[in-house]
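Let us practice reading a record.
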Amino acid sequence: MHRDTLSGAVLAAALVIPLFGCGGGSRHDVQEGYYLVTTNKNIPYWQSAAAGLADAAVKMGVKHELIGTDAYDPDGEQAEFKKLLALKIKPTGIMISPADPEAMTPLINQAVDQGIPVITVDSDAPASKRLLFVGTNNYEAGRMGGEVAAKALNGKGNVVVFTMPGQVNLQERLNGYEQVFRAHPGIKIVEVVDMKGDPRITFDRAKEILDSGKPLVDAFVCLEAQSCPEVADEVNRHNAKKLIVAMDTDPRTLDWIRKGVIAATIAQKPYTMAYFGAEVLDALYHNRPPSLAANFEKDTRAPVPNFIDTGAALVDKSNVDQFSGNGSQGPK
């Protein structure tokens, strides 16, 4: 994925600023509707994103809806996307966070072929015809967490990682951690646990590790935010001295940081992803490129950037209260 975040920001401004100069909702009609598709739609992370979508849509005077499953369900997400494509009045634009990028790619391509602008947020499907990705630079987020872990471990220790293999954003975070750890040969990732979108799996595996003491584990890293509150609960029950580095600002994660059980977490901006994503879709709808299906990634005169980085921040005990109730919390 393109890593030049400064260029991404400049291109994003170039895309949006000229296109939104007309102001207000005067250029919109009642048929316009923007949709965000995801899984686990009721968790705080996606509720924050839903608020961003709603605020942008109200400003523009258009319809909007968060669509998805109540639990982590990639198949269900695909079914919800298919329902959008079957609507009598086609969506004006779609944002999606693909839980299974490979399976979602044909559906994204189908939407674009029907003339519907599609962008990915939070998690990408880079092989699809999506126009661009709006979200965190997940590789750098992983590096941020890796630096925290390497410093706290003094360059030596065994690490267990909780993730969901196959999801692009999580793999990029793991790549970032691994890049940092390569500079510290004494740090080894001894296990990568597929928590399958179910925090109970995390809880059970953390308990097994802490009960048995094997393999010897010095740190737990969570690449999505449902896991680390469960890990922290078990570490606290065992009164164990373990490093925990989390992801996102779920209220439970922030509480464990205050208590000193979780060392740090990486905060994303789901509200911003959806708010800005809606504005980008609106700009693409009202200023349609010659072709939605063009390969913009390899086009040096592309009308849109390939990646817009919405930013991430390190949260620890020194600044945790600044992130309480700011709308950014939640797992993904």
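A brief commentary: Residues 44-60 form the longest helix (17 residues).
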